[in-house]
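Schema walk-through. Below, the input block comes first and the output block second. Nothing else is stored per chain. Lengths vary across the set, and this one has 303 residues.
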Amino acid sequence: MSFLKRLSWLMERRKKFPPDDIHRAGDLAEMRLAKLSRAAGRDNGWKIYESVRIPDPDGGRREIDMVIIGGNSILVVEQKHWAGSFRINKDHHFIQKRKNGDEHSHDGVADRIARKARLLTELHQKRLGLSSDNLPDVRVIVAMTHQRLDWPRIPEGLAAEMVNEKGFLDIIKAVNPGKPTLELVETLEGFNTWDEVHLHGGLMNKGDVFELGLGTDIDSLFAKRECEVIGSTQHKRGLFAVFDKQPSKASIKIGKKNASVTLAHGACINMHVVGESKPRQIPWACIDKIVLSKPPAEWNKNG
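--- output ---
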């Protein structure tokens, strides 16, 4: 390998990708609410699932921030961590007014999460062949969790309950459904969540990873997996690493299989990042770690 190519590779390993502060704040708020929900609902039997992705008959998959199950009951939760204020217009669109005065319209927040709740219920019903009389009880909730949010009057006929963080946790504490049914657990376990690729500098990309790009054997294991995949890297980033012929390694765990891989120059993950129009290659030289979801169950792979 030429010196210029080694230098370019070193610069790629040293490049930093700072975190996206807006999305990071939302992610941290979701993690916080999930943690509080687990603590609040532990004694009442509630089981928490985060970032549940369900197939949409209109194409693709839709994410539900949190699904909570207990007994034969489901709470389908959309979380918004807005500061400032908001209003809800006659079409039930949510108009957020940020602290800097900017306004942003969020079309049908309550309607969209209510539709996701219906899709989730229909999937559960279809999987088990349930009659309408045996469907779980479903509550659709929009949780507005920022402490510094001014609330408007909530219109009648909204498709979801509107609560703040305390109100949401009070629901979990007050309702005691007992442990969730095996059927509900099996349904929720059949969904996947986002794949996460963490870059050097703190940026986390969420989306779908299609190939690891680490050779035929590992990519074959990855394609056939039925479990989560985790991986970490070790990169030499010092200036003298330009002379190192093998400056990068990765440790990959797929189920019970563990692999230590020397990362070749140009090795890339193939990933479709949320919000981007098409998949792209992400160099392993820029990656610190990966946490990849288990795939959806066989009954849930369409869509």
